[in-house]
Amino acid sequence: MTKNLVFPDGFLWGGATAANQYEGGYGQDGKGKAIVDVLPAGKNRKSVMLGRLDYKNLDEDTIYPGREAVDFYNHWEEDINHMIEMGFKAYRFSISWSRIFPTGIEEEPSEAGLAFYEQVIDKLVANHIEPVVTICHFDMPLHLVETYGSWRSRKVIDAYLHYSEALFKRFKGKVKYWITFNEINMLFHLPFMGAGIVFQEGEDEEAVKYQVAHNELVASALATKLAHEIDEKNQVGCMLAGGQYYPYSSHPDDVFDAMDKNRNIFFFSDIQVRGHYPNYAKKKLEQLGIQLQMEPADEEILQKYPVDFISFSYYSSRLTSADTSVGEVTAGNVIHSLRNEHLEASEWGWQIDPKGLRTTLNVLYERYEKPLFIVENGLGAKDELIDGTVEDDYRIDYLNKHMKAMRDAILIDGVDLIGYTSWGCIDLISASTGEMSKRYGYVYVDKDDTGQGTLNRYPKKSYYWYKDIIASNGASLE
Q: Which of 2, 239, 401, 435 is 20 to 30 Å from the Cα of 213, by its Cα?
C-alpha cells in the first residue's frame, strides 16, 4: 500500500460519545433518574453492572461518577466548537431516554429535553456535521427497571417505541443515521449496565438474558419500521461490540472454540440483519432448556424490518482456547481474552491489533453485504497535561495504524465502510470502571478519578493530527 491514498468521497470522519458517560446534567430541567445514576465508582461497580448487587443496597456515601460525567449538558457549545475546528463530518452521540421521558411512561415528551438535543443537532447540521444518534446507549429510565423489571417486560418495548417515535418526529430531516441499541451483545456480559437487569435470587440468569435479548430485538425491528415510516430517508443500524476471536493454536478444538465464541458476537446482528434466529442459536436455546416467550407476530416483525447498516465498536481482537488451562488471561472491552504473544497491550491490558480491525471489517462485510460503520475505536491511556496540552504520540500511533487498516479494507478488500467515529473524542468517564484517568479524547477535560477538577477543556497533540487526517481525507496517514 502506498502513501497518499484517500478515502471515498463523503467518508464520515468524526468522533463519538454517549450521554451516560459524557452528558451529566443530573436532575437538570426535569431529567429523570437513569441506570447510569445508580452505577457506583469503586469496588461495587462491577457487581452492580453484572446485576448481582442491587443498587438499592449501596452505602449512603457512594459516589456516582455518571451524574456529572464531564458535563456536556453545560459545555455542549464549547465541545461542538472543538469538533467544528477539527473538521468533523459526523458526530455520534446518544440521547438520554430519561431526559425525554423522565419515568419512561409519560404520554408527552419533555419539551426541555427535546429542545436541548435540538440545539445540539441544529449546530451540528449548520456546520455540515452529520448527527449519528444512538437511541439507547446503556441507558433507560430507572422507573422502568423498578416497575417492570426492565426489558423482561414487553411493556418496555412499548415505552421504547413511544420514545423512538418522539425522536424520529422531532428530528425528521435533521438526523439521517440512527442506531437502535449500543453494543447490544453487552447485555450478556454486563446485564444491568447493558439492559437494566437486576437478578433475583434463584432466577435462571441465562433464560432472563435471552428473553431480554428477544424483547430488545423485537423493539429494534419495530423502531426500524417506525423510522422508515416517518422518514423514508432514515437509515437505521444495529451496533455490536466487535473484535474477532482467534484460535490459540491450530488444534481443531481451538479453531472450533473460536468459531463458537464468534457466534456469540454475531447472535444479535444475525437476527437484526438477516431477520431470523439462526439454527445455531435455536440449538443453543434448546440445549439450555430455554423457551422464549414470543408473541405470534414476532418472527414476522424480525423478518420484515432488518437494519440498513451494521455499526460496531472495535478496540482489540481476542484469543481463545478449548483448553482452559493454557495461556494468560488479559483484559478487553469487558470480555476477557487469552494473552496474544504477538500483540502489545494498553495500560488496561487491551491488546492492540490493527490487522484485527481489517479482519473484523472483512468478516462482517462478507457475512452481511451491507454497509458498515465503525462507531467506536480508540486507545484508553493515562494522559499528562503539561503547559495546557498533552503530547499523546501513543494515541496518534494507535489511531494511525487502525485508520490504515480500515483504508486497506476499503481500497484493497472492497469493504463498504460509511465512516469512522473514534470513541471519546472529548475525554469522558470509562463505562467499565467509572474512571476519568482512562482517557480516549482529542480534548483533555480537567477532572480526576475522585471527581475533582475545573472541567476546563484543552486540545491535545492528537487534536491537530486528526484535523489534518480529516482535511486530507486520509491522505496524510503515514
A: 435
